[in-house]
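Re: NDP structure - here you go.
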Amino acid sequence: MSRAPARFPDPALPRGSGRRALVTGANRGLGRAIALGLGRLGHHVIVGARQRAAGESAAAELQAEGLSAEWLALDIASADSIAQATVVLGTLDVLVNNAAILVDQGVPALQVPLEVVRRTFEVNTLGAIALMQACAPGMRTRGFGRIVNVSSDWGSQAMMAAHQLAYRLSKAALNSATRVFADELRGTGVLVNAMHPGWVQTEMGGANAVRTPEVAADTVLWLATLPGDGSTSGFFHDRQPHAW
Ligand code: NDP
């Protein structure tokens, strides 16, 4: 069991200095820890969540610590919801594509309904791509952007194996999208990276998971606060390169 770091976030990480950061799926699990970490680093945190009560509660948790935060209604599988958030999305400095679903855990590829594959892509891949498309132009214009795609080793080609076809393909495609966006934005000040958080104690990870959300969030915070000459088009785990 990996324990929570003595201090969260790592005090050696650079300060956000009021930069505007959106975390999708920030109402619970890993997203909530990422939002808290970004807030404590001095970002203005935009808590992306599709349910009002859950989103407001997560934003209130940050505000109760004196941090700058607001809730943004955002269902990443809904084009309408993303369209309604266009103005906010155009102002972001940091985008963390964290929200995802895993609905075919343990299901063999021979049995998974195509509808499950489609739905998983809608959230895990197309939702993240739509947000990158909405956010990147403003980042490029302002010459600063950090995009972090929360992926999974289940999407790594090097580790591809049986079961979870929908989830695996959705994350493999997200990894590829990371590299395409990163290359198109190279030299603009916008860095785009993916990361694998490990097996995390959340609803998705389940009760037997070995890492706390805070430990898993560290690499996201590191990527969200990279200096201008930091990595782009990378895939990381615990701040180290991970096999694609
Ligand atoms: P959880 O299932 O605990 O949380 C998922 C979050 O995504 C929730 O906030 C959920 O919101 C949100 N979400 C789901 N669908 C949508 C949608 N359509 N629009 C907006 N938000 C949505 O997952 P984790 O915190 O464990 O996972 C976070 C990330 O880490 C994911 O990308 C996951 O794939 C990745 N990951 C997790 C691992 C683990 O062991 N936990 C391992 C490897 C990768 P709501 O509450 O409304 O459902």
